[in-house]
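<amino_acid_chain>
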Amino acid sequence: MSDKKTASENINTDAFVGATMGAQKSQTGKKEKNVLGSSQTDPNKILPITYKWAREYYKQGVSNNWSPEEVSMQRDIELWKSKDGLTEDERRMVLWNLGFFSTAESLTANNIVLTIYKHVTNPECRQYLLRQAFEEAIHTDTFIYCCDSLSLNPDEIYNMYLTIPSIEDKDRFVVNITQSLMDPNFRITDEKSIQKFVNDLVGYYIVMEGIFFYAGFAMMLSMLRNNKMVGVGEQFQYILRDESVHLAFGVDLINTIKEENPGIWTPEFQKELTETIQKAVEFEKKYAEDSIPRGILGLRPDVVSQYVEHIADRRLESIGLKPQYNAKNPFPWMSEVIDLSKEKNFFESRVTEYQQGGSLGW
């Protein structure tokens, strides 16, 4: 068995202790199950567990259950309706992020339910995917709750992926790099098809959830840090916690497929994936420039862009690719909440508070 660390171990999260990289083996040394290639319709023979990390992520998701209604929006409503409550640039940033996340969460849910579940046939991985799909539904409900609470125009928010070029570009990019997942005729039959599947998993987990979400987290958590839109900000904290687990599962899934199919990890394929992630970084930089063109709350487009590069290097390293930017984290105040090297503190100190609901503190 490989001695590589799981994604959960890489983020130093004790909540995921026990997760191990790659297929677990029986006492005879023979793998009981593989991530890919089993029957798509047989009953889920989840015992004995082959991938303990998948089971741990599922249990972590269950223990972190929440709903948006647990968070009071009263202060947000008062601030949003006040003429002097927020600047126009602050309102723009809130609307841009609500617009992107509201459609992005729906897109990720579609990927799980319609495609990833079809090809990832291991039962414990499928169990986690069902949990993740539920969490995506909760996230979608969050933006409904925010729109209703703030009396926002739903057509404006939910059509931003069509009316705001930087949001449209991000969504289109993800759709284009996950085409195999959405092709009803796609089948995993050989190493080339496995490469296509891994490429799409990278597009979904590493790009969408691991890069495209994190600039938005930085922006919205800066509002919370400045005691503005605290209800929306707390809900983004809940979503961030969920997405961190989604990302860790995706990294372990990708790395396990690599381990079980080493022939796919060619220099050419590594170069292709690296270039895809680099393109995603450029789209996210444009989104940052569009969301905060003049800079607010200590955030500037160039600083957010540096943060995106920092995050991208972490994502590259997590799946065995070389970092490309060597960018330092420009937001040390965010380390406890977002930066993966500090997430141990975030998880350990706040899981109980999450379970109680609406009691997040800084």
About this structure: The radius of gyration is 20 Å. Residues 70-356 form a domain with the Ribonucleotide Reductase, subunit A fold (CATH 1.10.620.20).
